[in-house]
Amino acid sequence: MVAGFFWVAGELLLPGLAVLCRQWRLLQGAVTLTLAVLATCWGCPSLFPESPRWLLATRQLEKGRKGLRALAEGNGVSLEDEFYSQEHLLSDGVPLPRYHTLCDVFCTRVIWKNSLILGFTAFIGSGIRHCFTRNLAPYLPRFYFSYFLLAALEAAACLFLCVTVNRFGRRPILLLCTILTGIASLLLLALTQYLLDWIILTLSVLGIAYSQAVTMLSIFFASEVLPTVVRGAGLGLIMAASFVGKAAGPIMDIQNNRGFFLHHVVFASFAILSVLSIMLLPESKGKGLPESLQDGESQRRPPLFRSSRRRDQLPLLSPRSAGHAPEHPVLTALGLQVSPAPSGLCRLCAVPPGAHRTTVSGQQLPSASLEALA
């Protein structure tokens, strides 16, 4: 979610850069030069280190040890040498590297289903936005005002997600935003000529905000349900689907909005279809990140209209021991410890519901901080 605010900040800075450059060729060169400078971080491990979680998940023990040592030293955490032993870092098997590609995702069932659904919702959220922005043109004074309005709505959508997803869950909020996006699209599609101007403007603004929330939450949701070993490839695929949906706007502008009605009908129908597919997704709130393909395949879809006590009894991740909550080496290197209560075991990680206590240097932190740093 923090990356969403940086994205909005970049959009707000772009008009100022355009004023300084004056010509579009200079603007394109300035943006390309900035991206080239950022690309140099890829070859500098100190500025852009590899993820220790991914290194351990792919059985790259030596590189994982180096990453954990650097992470612990950077956070001022002193760890014993036993922490970096093979028995502690790897639960089973010989530390042979296990690399996975995007083709491995196609051979799975649950992971491929989740990736397909989230890629589809990201595509719909980006593509349907042009149907709403076109309705804003007759009501806005200048063209640059609509640009700043879109950036402000993206910031509002990001703030809405930060407030709601940790409280109500990822899947319910994604379902709600998709339903509201579909309803706004259908009302504008069928009743535009019968509605008042302020109602059309309100529906368009709400549709833009909720469609942006659908796109952002789909990408964020995918980062939690995809296993660590294929998370980078899966996120790249879903973000590519989002950018393909964004390309619908420029294509319609090139065609002078010919076929806009068909474009609106198709994306409104896809939005309703995505509502049904979202119900097949698992819920990742309060659950650990899946590490291997087996962990990703063990995810279960919780019932939609039942209480939390009667949800499926199969855990998202099997705890490594029955007496305490599973600790990831990356969390220990960050100085985070999870201390369970002794009785009333939770069905997920063998601790009582709500009894997880996260301590950093003797101070307690809420469980949301642990989930964010994991």
UniProtKB/TrEMBL annotation:
Domain (Major facilitator superfamily (MFS) profile): residue spans on this chain: 1-286
Claim: Transmembrane helix is one of the keywords in the record: yes
Mode of membrane association: Multi-pass membrane protein
A molecular-function term among this protein's GO annotations: transmembrane transporter activity
UniProt entry keywords in alphabetical sequence: Membrane, Transmembrane, Transmembrane helix
Disordered, as annotated region: 289-310
Oxidoreductase in keyword set: no
UniProt main location, coarse: membrane
Record's subcellular location: Membrane
UniProt GO cellular component terms: membrane
InterPro entries per the UniProt record, alphabetical: MFS (IPR011701), MFS_dom (IPR020846), MFS_trans_sf (IPR036259)
PANTHER family linked: SOLUTE CARRIER FAMILY 22 MEMBER
Protein name: Major facilitator superfamily (MFS) profile domain-containing protein
Organism: Terrapene triunguis
